Amino acid sequence: MTATARNPADLGIADASRALDSGKLTSRALFEACLERIDGEGRALNAFIHVAAVLARAEADRSDVRRREGRPMSPLDGVPIALKDNIDVVGQPTTNGFGTAWMPDRDAGVVTLLRERGLVLIGKANMHEGALGATTDNPHHGRADNPAAPGHTPGGSSGGSSAAVAGRLCPGALGTDTMGSVRLPAAYCGIVGLKPSRGLWPNNGIAPLASGLDTVGPMARTVEDTAMLVDLPLGLVRLDQVVLASLENFDGAEIEDEAAAAYQAGLERLRGAGATIRRVQLADYSPSPARRAGLIISEVEAAVAHEALMRARPEAFSAEFRDMIDYGARAPAARYVKALHAVERIGAAFSTILDSVDGMISLTAPQMAFPFGAPVPASQADFTAPANFVGCPGISLPLPRSGNLRPVGLHLMAGLGRDVHLLGIAAAVEKALTV
Questions:
Q1: Taking the model in full, what pTM does it have?
Q2: Which phi and psi (to 5°) does residue 220 adopt?
């Protein structure tokens, strides 16, 4: 089906960009198609906390004028995207998933970059309260549903962003990732999610969780879409020249059988395409204790970040969130420092491995999306947290699945600053998995 023969809301970022560039589609028509779906069949997903229809429509109209005059600001001029509701956008309220809202007086740094490229900011996506959790079962704004597995969590904390992209409510979205909050919902919803290297995109104007771990990242339907959204080139990588490390330390995790089977099938396809997968082990490293060190840091720093709002508006926080940051506020300084040292040590150990290979490969999560109301697995971020500890790029892309089976995410990491290389590997992996 051609890009112009289907509902424009079905277009991914690359296809939307090409349709706009060719003149076969206007930004206004693309925006209206997305808005119609958001207000129609997409309403059941509860992916958005706020839709900026008037502002976004005006942005789309300005984009169409620029394209008619032959002066687009970038290839993505006029493409609509959603932003997680902890990212400040002038003219749109920010809630950070709490039961209150504020109007920012300036854009987040990453929003400034998006505006300079002419993207249309369609609205603010639902999220796990305070970004401190991975279900997006939000007590103030309602739960976001998983388009790929209705009745199941879309993951979190960027669950509304992943639901919006997977539900084809918009071509792409931004989330934030402290220990996996972009990549986990991407895996659960069957899309692509990238945590770039620390500092590739600025963090100013984003509600903090753990400043040393927080990263803003894109979510899209393909690796090409993701590369375009993060504004990085997509180089050609040959899998028969790629060496990927597979960490033996992850073998002890309690992995859901279906996820394990999909992962092993994926590895066989990659080996068949020529990739070398090398087994490695880290001494004195266990995924769950390491992830708990990151959680301690997040709880302590969240307590500091939200102290003033907690005093002024205690009713804006759920009892569960208050308990978590109360725990962080009471944590002994020695425990916080030990957690910082543990994260630093683990990050250095992973960096050593990543310096010797092209990347590291694993499942994104030990499990697939689980039903709302089921026990929340503590291990969700065990495989994704190390990329935040290193500060390096990590990407989740979907493994092949048939029928209505729940998605399974494949996770790749590369060394700090090697984002372009990682995207090239991911594109080659994506191609090998879909042949």
A1: 0.97
A2: -155, -175
